[in-house]
Amino acid sequence: MSGNETRAVRKLRARLDEARQLHALTDDPLLRAVRMERFRASVTRSLWFFLALGLGFTTTGVHEFLAGQLDPSHPMWWGAWLVEPGLAGILITLLRWEAEMLARGLDPEARPVRQLKRLLLGATLITNVWASLRPVTGGINAGMVFLHLVIPLVVFLIAEAMPVIQHRCATTRPEPVPTVPTPRPALKLPAHLHEALASKAAQVRGEGRPVTPADVQAAVNVPDAYAVKLAAQLNQ
């Protein structure tokens, strides 16, 4: 660094060094994977929230279809409120299963699962549209027909999009780098002790068993801790 640099140059040079360090850290693949995982979790929470809102709206349409002409004193009027939450619970369970399979790198695509999802959402769509076309009181409201048609479709598309989002985010995770074990340095012995130890090791292997610290100490006079290390080295 030149001694003629001004204070402004030194400050800019320090900022440049800091920027290089930050770039090296932010460009790390593991950090990018963590950020993507947090983004995936944020998007998933948002989708679950809006999916719950949509299912809450469709619950009213299903209830209107099943019990629109009944009085609240009728048991079926109350039981009808449980139909759509029950169907939605099955759908949510399927979505959770798909998300877990994708998080573990497994393909959840299966024809029965796909058919069950479409059946659940198709039943919701039909009951909502029918209830809006045949209102119990008043005439047909075009806005309500539109909402009861569009919102079940949006719920269906959210259910189809969530596994795709999970899969795309899972593919951005870096593959784990295999850790190469560091070889332990070989313990050095004088030549005559090495020969005695090698002879004892050959004898023990001939008996079909691993070398023990006691075998090592029977061949050479070494401390217990050193005998353990020598036995481990001979058994590698």
UniProtKB/TrEMBL annotation:
The keyword Transmembrane applies. The keyword Transmembrane applies. Keywords: Membrane, Transmembrane, Transmembrane helix. The chain crosses the membrane at residues 46-66, 78-95, 116-133, 139-159. This is DUF2637 domain-containing protein. It comes from Actinosynnema pretiosum.
